Amino acid sequence: MYWMYLVLRRKLGRFLSGISTTRIIALAFALIICIGTGLLMLPVASRSGVGCSFRGALFTATSATCVTGLTLFDTWTQWSGFGQVVILGLIEVGGLGFMSAASVFVFLLRGRMGMKQRLVMAQSMSVDDMSGVIRLQKIVLAGSLGIQGTGALILALRFWPELGLKKAVRWGIFHSVSAFCNAGFDIMGCFDPGTSVMRYNRDPIVCLTLMALVVLGGLGFFVWEEVVRVREFRKMSVYTRLVLIITGVLLLGGTLAFAVLEWNNPGTIGEMNWFEKLLNAAFQSVTVRTAGFVAVDQAALTDASKGVSIVLMLIGGSSGSTAGGIKTVTILVMFLFLWTRARGREAVTVFKRTIPDSQVLDAMTICSIVVALAIFGGVFISATSGFSFADALYESASAIATVGLSAQGSANLSVSAQYLIILYMYFGRVGVLTISLGLLAADRTRDRFRYAETRLMIG
């Protein structure tokens, strides 16, 4: 038996050595989704004891692995304790990256990682430098477990008087992991299926804890490491400073926008006091940037608020984080380019540093692809499911940015639209990552020849 293991290991190593790291990441996520789908189809995974359909299991497994949060069923009502554990495992692996999970076993066994494994690990965290990747991975694992454990403890203590110790601990762990990984899954359906955290939207402990977990998960692993190591803002890298500034601006701007647009809306925050209004406006600003928890009825939002939500969804979190979307710095580079060109200049600069033209083009490429797919998805969903275009675009942007919010409910989508959402969730988590890595980390080849230039009328 041992020699068969050695032969299989050697053949698998040769097979993987011929595959690019980006394809390994994509295939690994697909394999995890397939395993999750099979487990969720088991009768033991359903609360009723009847196995879930393939489409329902695939939708849920994809949503959990891609840390999206869109669902066809209420998590508590549909899934048993075993099913919820499977979903939680998929969220953890999908949020931190499969290489983070694999590295746990390597560290525990005190094994060594080869160059290929280090490269995959670096790229799975959106880091293009392999130096210090093992140290960074250890910081990611320790920091992630520490943050999630702290969040679980706070939530468990809050739920304890209401739910009892055992259930409070389970709720604390599940919602802490889901929030930190920006997944948006919840098991609060035992009170009122499908309402997510609306039961606690006036509770500052629950809301602020979930918000803190979501923000920390969306900053990015590289940012964590540098903040812990450097600590002084002025000495941090340009990238880390930009992430911190943009995150703060988006959170504050989104809070103000939702507070103004929803202040007197009785369907959302109109009947709350001023503190609760600001709390829920801030929660909405946080959750639409890939978290997916619902504190107010998304269908009752004004069209203006839905528009702001879609923009924040598409921006998403930061590179190398548990969040999805175009990414904060990527969208900033695009706007800096537009501002530079509008002033008739060529060099794109920030903090007295010039951004390479290649990275500017990469940012424009990623933004164009994601926005184009979101619009196409909105048109397709509206045409096949009878949604208004605003609600259809809301669903499409939520899927491709791995947010998990829905205005009309994913269960009301047509079958074809549900499969499109599955593809969008996978692309939003894996496709954007692999495209980004392919653009940013690949060695660019020079064209062997160029055609003569021609001048076109622009604008």
The helix-strand sequence is HHHHHHHHHHHHHHHEEHHH
Strand content: under 5%
Number of strands: 2
Number of domains: 1
Distance between the termini: 69 Å
Structural class: mainly alpha
Neighbour order of strands in the largest sheet: 1-2
Give a quick account of the main beta sheet: strands, pairing sense, barrel closure. Answer: 2 strands, antiparallel
Uncertain spans: 101-111, 113-126, 440-444
Helix coverage percent: 55-70%
Q: What average pLDDT do the residues reach?
A: 83
General form: globular
Radius of gyration over all CA atoms, rounded: 22 Å
Instruction: State the helix count.
Output: 18
SSE blueprint:
Elements: H1 2-17, H2 21-40, H3 54-65, H4 75-78, H5 81-96, H6 98-109, H7 115-124, H8 133-163, H9 165-180, H10 204-219, H11 221-230, H12 238-262, H13 274-287, H14 303-315, H15 328-342, E1 348-350, E2 353-355, H16 357-385, H17 389-400, H18 415-441
Antiparallel strand pairs: 1-2
Helix pairs in contact: 2-3, 2-5, 2-7, 2-18, 3-5, 3-18, 5-6, 5-9, 8-9, 8-10, 8-11, 9-10, 10-13, 12-13, 12-14, 14-17, 15-16, 16-17, 16-18, 17-18
Question: If you had to describe this structure to a student in words, what would you say it looks like?
Answer:
The protein has 459 residues and is an all-alpha fold. It has one domain. It contains 18 helices and two strands. A two-stranded antiparallel ribbon has the order 1-2. A hairpin with a 2-residue loop joins strand 1 (348-350) and strand 2 (353-355). Helix 2 (21-40) crosses helix 7 (115-124), helix 3 runs parallel beside helix 18 (415-441) and helix 10 runs parallel beside helix 13. The radius of gyration is 22 Å and the shape is globular. The model is unreliable at 101-111, 113-126 and 440-444 (pLDDT under 50).
